[in-house]
Each structure stands twice: as C-alpha cells, then as structure tokens.
Design brief:
The chain has one domain. 77% of the residues lie in helices and 0% in strands. By secondary structure, the protein is mainly α.
C-alpha cells in the first residue's frame, strides 16, 4: 500500500514537536525561577508578620486597588488606540479596549509577560490589520509606555538617593541612557544596507524593522502625539502607584504617597525581566529591595507584592468573558 503524505507535512511535524518541546522547557525554567525566588524571599522574611498583616486586610482597599489596575488597562488601551491610528491601522476604541483587557488577562495567565501582546497581535489581524502592522503597533505601544516608566524610575531613584544600595541605584539610573539608545536604534533601523534585505529569512525581518523605524519616527517626532502618549503612559503608572498605596493603607502600613511613587515604578520595571512565571518571584524580590529604602520590612513588602499580583489577576478577569465571546 502506497504511503501518501501531504507536501511538507513530514517536515512540519518534527518542527512543531521541537517548538513544543522548546516552549515546555521555557515554561519549566520560568516556573523554577519563580519558585526559587519566592523560596529565597520567604526564607529571608518574617512570614508570620506578613500573615498578621494579611489577616487584617481591608476589602475596600482591595476593591480600590483592583479598580486602579483596571484603570491602567483603560489608559493603556487609549495609548494603543492612538498608536495604531498614527501608523495608519485605525480601529474602534471599543474593540481596542476589549482586546487590551484580553491581553491583560493572558499576561497574567501565561508564563511570559509578552504572552498577552502576542494574543493582541493575533486578534488584531482577525480584524483585517496586516500582521506586520499589528506587530509594529503593539511594540510601539509598549515602548511608549516604557518612556514614562523609566523617567519616573530615575526620578524616584534620585529622590531616594543614598537610601538605595549603590549598585542598585546605578543599575536603575542606567535604564534611562539604555532606553534612549534603544529608541535611537529603533528609529535608525531603516538605514541598514539595502543588500541585507535581499537575504532569505533575514530580509523579511529587516523589512518589518524598516517599517517600524518609519512609524517610530512618526510617533516620537510628532510633538502632539508624543506628548499625548507620554501623558497616557504617566497616567498608567500613577494608577499602579495608587494601587500599591491603597493596598498599603488596607494593611495599615505607614507608607506615604510620595514614598510609594518613588519605589513602585522601579518594582514594575524590574518585574519586566522575562525570567519568571508572569513576574512572580521577581516582583517580590524587587519589592523587598526597593521598599527597604523607605523603611518597610521584608514581610510587609512581600505581603504588598503578593496582594498586588492577586489584584492584577482580578483586574484582568474581564478579559476572560471578552475572549470567550470573541472566540465563540
């Protein structure tokens, strides 16, 4: 009996299996990193003190924090909506808001912080936006959010001064020139030699990055658009700061709004490191280091960080019914 196979099918199955094994390996590594970091934090903190704080936690503070984090999603949707209009891929704001909530849900449920971004790109292509353009729009939205975050990190580090360890202070301050260099490179990518674009596989990626450079200049060099994006990005960070502040008030922790504003942006920036499962472990480690600068003990910092992580999950839950409705 003749063995019939579809063209390319025999090659596709091993490749798919290899990709699946790679994804599983990454998942295991990130989960292991989260467990190790959480274990290290737990061994070095007074968990009984954290438990006592959590026992008296105010539910109204939890609700306020969740609403603030939902505000982050709304403001981020506005930022994304403005970016994709600028790159000539306009969509109704209602759709963008729904996709942003869907992305927020998957960001908390998937091992990597960019999982939600991948879902957003995929869903946007289902509404007629070219995959390249959808990818560029999400990347530029993310980058515009980083600008305000890094500026606030630097401001907080300068305000904290010697209260931070010298190495940590220098690393956080270095985030600003690193971001500026990355932005400059992003806007220059279409200046690469033309011959590179004719190389198979590499050429496709270079064409996308060249388009991204053109749109990056359009977004960053237009004063009205860039200022609007900076304002929206700053507003998103303010909502995150308020969420931490309300959680601290709910725990009865004496933490001022100014101290919270000086510490939280750095915690969020460090959590972006893609080395753990949805930021768990990294966020708690960063919270212990940063909140120590304003006099909070490790147990209090861990309690705050865990509550913030749970509030993120609850704030992203509206994305689940939106996802189910869109994929029905």
């Amino acid at each position: 009996m003749t063995n019939l196979t579809l063209p390319g099918y025999s090659d596709a199955r091993p490749a798919a299996a290899t990709a699946l094994r790679r994804r599983n390996a990454v998942f295991v590594v990130k989960l292991t990193v989260s467990v190790i970091l959480l274990g290290a934090v737990a061994s070095g903190t007074d968990l009984s003190a954290a438990g006592a704080l959590l026992a008296g936690f105010s539910p109204s503070a939890a609700l306020a924090a969740i609403l603030c984090l939902m505000g982050v999603t709304v403001v981020s949707a506005l930022r994304w909506w403005l970016v994709i209009r600028t790159i000539d891929a306009p969509q109704p704001f209602r759709r963008i808001l729904a996709l942003m909530f869907v992305g927020s849900f998957f960001t908390q449920m998937l091992p990597t912080s960019i999982g939600g971004d991948a879902v957003r790109i995929w869903q946007l292509t289902r509404h007629g936006v070219a995959a390249d353009r959808a990818f560029i729009g999400v990347i530029l939205e993310r980058v515009s959010g980083l600008v305000a975050l890094v500026l606030m990190v630097v401001g907080g580090v300068l305000w904290l001064g010697d209260m931070l360890p010298a190495t940590l202070r220098l690393l956080l301050l270095a985030s600003l020139p690193a971001l500026l260099a990355a932005l400059g490179l992003l806007c220059w990518l279409d200046r690469l030699p033309e011959g590179l674009r004719r190389i198979p596989l590499l050429g496709r990626g270079l064409r996308v990055t060249a388009d991204m450079a053109v749109y990056a200049r359009r977004v960053s060099l237009a004063p009205v658009i860039s200022l609007a994006l900076l304002f929206l990005s700053a507003a998103a960070q303010v909502f995150s700061i308020l969420a931490f502040f309300f959680l601290a008030q709910g725990l009865g922790v004496a933490l001022s709004l100014v101290e919270t504003a000086a510490v939280v942006p750095a915690v969020i920036l460090i959590t972006f490191l893609p080395v753990s499962f949805a930021g768990w472990g990294v966020r708690e480690t960063a919270s212990v280091m940063m909140f120590a600068a304003v006099g909070l003990g490790g147990g209090t910092a861990v309690a705050l960080s865990v509550l913030f992580g749970l509030a993120l999950i609850l704030a992203g839950l509206p994305g689940l019914p939106l996802w189910l409705r869109r994929t029905r």
